[in-house]
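Researcher: Can you fold this with 4'-deoxy-4'-aminopyridoxal-5'-phosphate in place?
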Amino acid sequence: MLDTLPQQSPDALLALIKMYAADERADKIDLGVGVYRTDDGATPVFAAIKAAETKLVNEQDSKSYLGPEGDTGFVDALMPYIFGASAPVSDRIEGMQTPGGTGAVRLAVAVARKAGVERVHLGTPSWPNHAQILSDIPINAVFFDHATDDGRANIDQLLGVIAAAGKGDAVLLHGCCHNPTGIDYSNAEWDAIADAFSRSEALPILDLAYQGLGSGLEKDAYGLRRVLGAVPEALIAYSCDKNFGLYRDRVGALYVMAENAAQLGPIMSNLNALARASWSMPPDHGAAAVRLVLRDEKLTQMWLDELASMRARIADVRAQMAAAGQIGKLDLTALARQHGLFSMLDLTKEQIDRLRSDHGVYMAGSGRINVAGLHSGNIANFVNALKDVAG
Ligand code: PMP
């Protein structure tokens, strides 16, 4: 029976990682996989996480089961960062730990479907796994353009989508650091989005996977908080895999804001049941380390400092790239207006292939680059390579 399964195309980014590893050129440049890198090209474990892990190893006295909701101390400790220290809606919000932001998005869509949502509206391009999750659940995906041709957020389309949406519709939005475009909504645009949601019955699903890597922990949550202030209910998928550098430890959470506190119990019981039937319980280690960081003032400050230095480096790389200005039709000044790890370069397939074959530059076939793959040692080479293929 298993022989009826058709071959699936391999994950393009994973294939790129293999090609990069096999390239023997010393000056090759990896702009593919989406992880933060230091100016030395490393993706180190955060010092605050290392300290928390040491504490965990020394103090953890049991690895007995917790439950589908995972580490509730972790879930609660994150809430002030996501929803604000004095969130007026907090008695209507509850969460549970998930295996990464991926698990949170999946659970959000699954519970939305169970509650009667029939369509999920998604701006494209998006993180490819968004569409894959929608198709796998399955639920109807309805796509709109995330960006305009001149590289701005297509706010008019989004406002139209929200206005036309009704019961049975959900709209999935990136909270900040849009993957793959880096094109975020301005605060004024978020105000308009929140206003549109307040007049629509659509359910917002907010995916916050890069808080702190854009403009700051508070500023990156502006849109999410504005939307939550305008609607009766919403689902919030959160990842700690980038902003705590925990990638492979799979650390995330799903929060639900209900119309009133009494509804939280039944909703959470459904989330628990869905989680139980898929992964049963989330992996503990990374979330426990985050809890220890957030419950210790010194470790929290170490984390905040490290996150601030990452954010500053990403902004610095973006400014350096923008200084290269226009290369042929390629407008690099846009990179300075965008946020987070990713941007899209308007390159043809041939140009992307030539960057790889002639210059050892590895990027996704879509033209997405991981900005953090650039550093003082390779930016000039990358700009010269762009001049060669696109100038
Ligand atoms: N949402 C978005 C927009 C993402 O880019 C990612 C990660 N690339 C995730 C969710 C999931 O992150 P993870 O499962 O690694 O925590």
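Model: Folded with 4'-deoxy-4'-aminopyridoxal-5'-phosphate in place. The radius of gyration is 21 Å.
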